[in-house]
Amino acid sequence: MIISRQDYNKKPLAIQQGALLLWGKLLMNYREGDFLCQLYSLNNFFVQSYSSLNPQKIVKIYTFHTTKNLKINPTSVWKAGSAV
Questions:
Q1: Assessment of whether the complete model's pTM goes beyond 0.85
Q2: CATH code that applies to domain 5-68
Q3: What would the mean pLDDT of 60-74 be, rounded to a whole number?
């Protein structure tokens, strides 16, 4: 599926989450404070999702054209596809 960053940002959170699961490429999992975070590549942009730990559900999604200025301060990092 091809979607622009602008169109993706206009979609409801549930639709954004579904697009990530179906078409996003998971690059990294990490924990930042009280949040479980994931970094995805989707089409020509990147998506960073934040999930609450209990219950585990996405609470915020940010999009970026480049990861050049992305600041990640993880308390723990693990490879994409490995167990949490």
A1: no
A2: 3.30.67
A3: 82
